[in-house]
Amino acid sequence: MFSDRQPRSFLEPAVLARLAGVPLLARRPMVGSVSGRHASPHRGSSVEFAEYRKYVPGDDLRRLDWRAFGRSDRFYVKEYEADTNLRLFLVLDTSGSMAYGSAKPGAVAVEQPLSKIAYARRICGGLGYLAAEQGDAVGIACAAGEIVRSLPPRRSPAHLRLVFDVLDEAKPEGPTRLPNVLHELAETTRQRALVVIVSDLFVSPSELAEAFGHLRFRRHDVAVFHLLDPQELAFSFQRPTRFLDLEGGGTIFADPVEIADRYHQAVAAYLEDLRRIVLESGVDYHRVVTDQPYEQVLARFLVGRAAGRSLR
Amino acid sequence: MTFLQPWVLAALPLVSLPLIIHLINQRRFQTVQWGGMMFLLAAKALSSGYSRLRHWLIMLLRMLAVAGVILAVGRPLSRGWLALAGGGRPDTAVVILDRSPSMQASDPAVVGSKLATGRRQLAESLATLAPARCLFLGTPDKPIEVSPQGLFDLPAAEPAAAPADIPGMLRSAYDHIRENAAGTAEIWICSDQRANDWALETGGWSGLRDAFAKLPQQVRFQLLSFSDPAVGNVAIRVADARLAVRGNERELVVRVEATRTDAGADPEPRTLPVRFEIGGVTTVVDLELAGREAVLADHVLPLGRGVEARGWGRVSIPADADLADNEFYFVFDDPPPRVTLVVAENAKAERVLELAASIPPSKELTARADAVPRSALATAAWDEAAAVLWQGPLPTGREAEFVDAFVASGGQVIFFPPEQPAAADRFAGIFWKEWSSYAEPVEPEQWRTDQDLLANTLSGGALPLGELEVRRICGLGGEIVPLASLPGGVPLVARVPDERGISLCATLPIPRDSSLASEGIVLYALVQRVIDRGLVPLLGARQLDAGAATVALAQSGAGAAAWERLAGPPGLLSTEAGLQPGVFSVAGRLVAVNRPEAEDAAVIVSDERIDGLFRGLSYARLSGHAGAPETVVQEIWRAFLIAMLVALVIEGLLSLPRRTRSAVVGMPPLEAAA
């Protein structure tokens, strides 16, 4: 599955090997072209019993439940769930703000915060690999001011390599217009898919709510990895600082000690708004501080989904 | 505010240190590329208003803390909020203490008179100021060097019956500062602003002020004023005490005056028990005090048989706000014979003068006029005589010596012009000029009715000088003070200015020259008043006012040691003789020393007038109150340190980061239910 020509810095085989034991499952029925691990809206031939229905002429007589006929003297057909494959669509935020990372130069440990784009690459790479490994289609879209680059979901290993290339080449620059991008994706992606958004979500929560609603309307299963750098939460600068906007929005001079309180107030209000929105829109939301091990984050994501499937 | 270490204030610019540090800190900024600008913008929008105020408040508090340290190290002194005159520790401090009786007034509600309070406050203030030298002036004499604590038990700072000569003491302080004090001087005056102590009319204040202003040394004045009136205070005094004989018994006739020193618009009437003590016998008489003053006139105190004519007594009233004016000493004695020497060249004039001098003003008195030829002056009864009426050429040579000695011993002389005046004949700087005649008799145009020999009578009536007719007048030369003048300012009656007891009348009491003889009253009053003055040194009992004149009298002759105390406050020092009240036996005579009448007038000089006296000088006035426990001057560096600490604590509280919602701790749960 891995290319021997291009070692990917965001892929760690040991981590992926550990995560491979947990399947990546959709929380909503998927409409796939081949059989797979994921629930389908259609009835099929899996071992999972779904329901009884009355026989109608033309039904396959092999599916008649003769025991039920014996008890009730009526013909019933026994139906089973159909399993299909998954379309995983990764949405990577490549706006300028994703370049921020408070990790000290040279820090390599996972516990040390990476830049958000580096962390996002690992999330997307890991999920893409796991999906492809279980036969699901994987696509990717890089979003900044617009869709910078996009690959539709495909099941082939060669396509996965292209996805990794896109991840490798993604550069954080430009402003964030993630809601617009999500609206565009909702319109252009007609088949149901698991849409995984990896972003710092530095946009208006109300605009995000509309975009999430649009995706859900299109029956996509939406998951969000909300990446935040520890320094963006702590804002623990001590000296007067000139802040340069990574998205080219200008400069702000401030005494961090002076405004830290109001900064924290603003962040808390933003997070509270976001929490309300994801609850209302039914988005699988994961807040990730980039000093957390990404393996742990992915494991929690996968296990959570598997647990949801088992309750079906 | 004053500082003991004023040079420390040079560090006050350090107050701007927090500001400078802030500005430097602002310039040492770091640059960070940042993603969450939306939060920064929101925080900046929220940080205006209170945050800006807090920021500047913190800056201000830091500056205050620095200022507090600097001011505390400068050792600030509190002198009341009115005393804002700057300056540091003086090299010389001069204390001028008003010890007059009115300073012994106290507030009934608290313990301590004005004087005691002032002494304590001055001693504590000077102990705080710690000047290199501390001088004390209780009289206009040479200053006494004392320690600040020495003011507590300095005998010269004890209460006195004499008025305080504030300008005199200032003059003495000026002399000392000019001659001895090279550095900064501070003059502390403690007084109750009584008019008789400050002598505004005669004290030469403008000259004094100019003199101080021209001193090269810096001189600061601090007036500790106790000008509150003594509430409910009444002063008692004996205006007259004379002996009389009724049948075979002697009796004392006294005139007692009671005066409210704080009389308001409508004082309540009260009965004052007046207590007389004479020879161990006490008598109490009730005196109704309805208005500001009450007089017990011609009150008779029987002395009984066998009592010596000469004696003393004391009159007192119950204690009130000022104990110093609640008693009064008096002495009495048979009046000496009123002996007058008449030296005249004109027989008619001699006869008239003999008549005027030999008729006593009352029947209890005896009077005698001895006509003395100029050739027999050596054998005249100079020791018995109270006055000399001299008509003729002014005495010269041996005659002048007799007259000089007589005047020096307290005798009085009236010179009348000679028939043939000679300008060469001079006595005490005066001489007679030529006679001049008037075609028509002229009358005196003006004369002094307020004081001196021609003053109005006790009942207030004026002497009938306007009815006199003068036909001839002899010119007067030399330095004189006219007491009565004819039209054109020609002096009729005059005296020499030094008040040595030499008076002049420029016409003769004969019909050719004037109606002095026929009109009689003016001449008689003039002569009897002169005799009264001349009798004073001959009296066996004298009433004296405490003050500089009495001190000079006590120091003359055998000195104060000859003053044997018969009554009065205990513990009198010889140096205080003449200043303290009491009865003394001096060379066989009795002398009663009491506070002057002006002390009972209780006229207080307004603050504005007092302030005007020091205009142009470094001056501050502090208001004191009798019994007030606080100190006038005290170090208040602790207050500044406390203020600094408070500023730092508040600054610390304001600088504390507000309980921040740590985005990690306080933010919503990491996993949101989808």
Q: How many angstroms does the end-to-end distance of chain A come to?
A: 32 Å
Per the CATH scheme, the topology name of the largest domain in chain A is Rossmann fold
What is the SS-derived class of chain B?
alpha/beta
Strand line-up in the sheet with most strands of chain A: 5-4-3-6-7-10
**What is the approximate shape of chain A?**
elongated
Mean pLDDT of chain B: 84
| Proportion of helical residues of chain A | 25-40%
| Terminal-residue CA separation of chain B | 72 Å
For this entry, what is the oligomeric state of its chains?
heterodimer
Q: Which regions of chain A are unreliable across 5 or more consecutive residues at pLDDT < 50?
A: 105-110
- The CATH fourth-level homologous superfamily of the largest domain in chain B: Class I glutamine amidotransferase (GATase) domain
For the report, how would you describe the main beta sheet of chain B?
8 strands, mixed
Give the SSE layout.
The complex is a heterodimer of chains A (312) and B (674).
Chain A: H1 13-19, E1 38-54, H2 66-72, E2 76-84, E3 87-93, H3 116-133, E4 137-143, E5 147-154, H4 157-169, H5 178-188, E6 194-199, H6 205-217, E7 221-228, H7 230-234, E8 241-245, E9 251-254, H8 256-281, E10 284-289, H9 294-310
Parallel strand pairs in A: 3-4, 3-6, 6-7, 7-10
Antiparallel strand pairs in A: 1-2, 4-5, 8-9
Helix pairs in contact in A: 3-4, 3-9, 5-6, 6-8
Chain B: E1 2-3, H1 17-27, E2 30-34, H2 37-46, H3 50-73, E3 76-78, E4 92-97, H4 114-129, E5 133-137, E6 144-145, H5 166-180, E7 185-191, H6 195-198, H7 205-214, E8 219-225, E9 234-246, E10 249-260, E11 270-278, E12 281-289, E13 293-304, E14 311-316, E15 327-332, E16 338-344, H8 347-358, E17 367-371, E18 385-391, H9 397-408, E19 412-416, E20 431-442, E21 446-447, E22 470-477, E23 481-486, E24 490-495, E25 502-505, H10 516-519, H11 521-535, E26 541-545, H12 548-555, E27 563-567, E28 582-586, E29 589-594, H13 598-601, H14 607-613, E30 618-623, E31 634-635, H15 637-655, E32 671-672
Parallel strand pairs in B: 4-5, 4-7, 7-8, 8-30, 16-17, 16-18, 18-19, 19-25, 26-29
Antiparallel strand pairs in B: 1-3, 3-31, 5-6, 9-10, 10-13, 11-12, 11-14, 14-15, 20-22, 21-23, 23-24, 24-25, 27-28, 28-29
